[in-house]
Amino acid sequence: MSIRIYNTLTRKKEEFVPLEPGKVKMYVCGPTVYNHIHIGNTRPAIFFDTVRRYLIYKGYDVQFVSNFTDVDDRIIQAGIEQGISAQEVAELYIDSYHSYTSKLGVQKADEHPRVTENMNEIVDFIDQLVQKGIAYEANGDVYYRTNHFDDYGKLSHQKTSELFEGVRIGVGEAKESPTDFTLWKKAKPQEVSWDSPWGQGRPGWHIECSSMIRKYLGDTIDIHGGGIDLVFPHHENEIAQTEALTEKPLANYWMHNAMLNIDNQKMSKSLGNFVRVNDVLAQHDPQVVRFFMLSGQYRSPINFSDLLLDQASNGFDRLKTVVANLAHRFKTALDTDVSEEQLEQLGKWKAAFEEAMNDDFNTAAAISVLFELTREINTVLQEESAPLKLLQQYHTTLLTLAGVLGIVLAEEPELLDADIEQLIEERQQARRERNFARADEIRDQLSQQGIILEDTPQGMRWRRK
């Protein structure tokens, strides 16, 4: 069975056919880094990490890009409040993002481009839109003409007049139409800015992703993902910008996860239920949080509460317990022959798991398969004559399928000092070879094991937390 994806653009499930056989180009909008991420930010991070893992499991070569917006009004304001530069604010919270998502089992993207590192491409993209008459400059600002793009509204499935009902031109704006949106903002006094053909300024939010997708993945990509709150205006504007310029589809499949509520209410600062991920991870196992996030179908809203997390913890512990029980039985199980029929039966669980994931990455159904598998394992464990090889196959199957979801059911053995030294040397070699992805993987592995790396004049040193 092939993978089927619910495409927000067409509002139906479609068979996934990549642009290039065996390869997937995938982009997911990342955070604006002005504070520690909130718990709602972890849902797309965890879900799209799982999509990537499953595509790799199915044999695809996945090129995955997720950006950081590192210049924004909120970042500038945070810098003023903290007495540091906007760049320092961004750096602080990018590190924070990687730290917390790593604990949640989220692997780094192949590329994490930042807006400030791609300013030339952004300015060039805007300039091309201006040259085509799709955008225009007014008093140092640059705006996009939405009425020049006939398909505007096709992602959110609404007419332009409906999307912008009641919108007026704001004070100080020189738009031709209330529906036009900003591509380039004229710099305010003492504000961080960059050179452009229209004077000092910085980009609008929507143009950033269009530019970085085109630079890192090309004119058209396979999958574009993000939260449902990004459909309009962010992703709608991305489509308008890119497709007006390239005259090609921006993405063939648009995927959006539903929102996360707190105690059955929308999370917001005004309601006092705004929850930062650092506060959650101080009280709950990160693997339980990941397990909880994947226990619901991604297009359905999920409710978040300490009670529901405790319930998820109970389910997660059931899976871990059966893995531990299997490992314990290895010591006493008989090394007798296993029939082909017994081994073939194990294949049904792999098939059931893949059937669930092939159906629009239904992680909730996939987790149900894991629970059904554990029930069978518990029955087998009651048989004193259960062969060792059969138990080992059950163990491998359960760990493998859970691992596709990024769920770790077996504790990694603690690293010995010699292992740590070897990994550090491997990391140093990777850095010398400019293989920074591998260097980051080793650093994250050591961090998860409680190993802190320190640069000293005498070289790299490590210590345990």
UniProtKB/TrEMBL annotation:
Gene that encodes it: cysS
Residues with the Phosphoserine modification: 270
Catalytic reaction list: tRNA(Cys) + L-cysteine + ATP = L-cysteinyl-tRNA(Cys) + AMP + diphosphate
Localization annotation: Cytoplasm
Ranges spanned by the short sequence motif 'HIGH' region, renumbered to the chain: 31-41
Motif 'KMSKS' region, residue numbers: 266-270
Any one Pfam family match given in the protein's UniProt record, by short name: DALR_2
Subunit and interaction comment: Monomer.
Entry binding sites for Zn(2+): 29, 209, 234, 238
Stored PANTHER family: CYSTEINE--TRNA LIGASE, CYTOPLASMIC, CYSTEINYL-TRNA SYNTHETASE
GO molecular function: cysteine-tRNA ligase activity
Major localisation: cytoplasm
InterPro entries: Cys-tRNA-ligase, Cys-tRNA-synt_Ia_DALR, Cys-tRNA/MSH_ligase, CysS_C, Rossmann-like_a/b/a_fold, tRNA-synt_1_cat_dom, tRNAsynth_Ia_anticodon-bd
EC number, UniProt record: 6.1.1.16
Family per record: Belongs to the class-I aminoacyl-tRNA synthetase family.
Protein name: Cysteine--tRNA ligase
UniProt-listed HAMAP family: Cys_tRNA_synth
Keyword S-adenosyl-L-methionine set for record: no
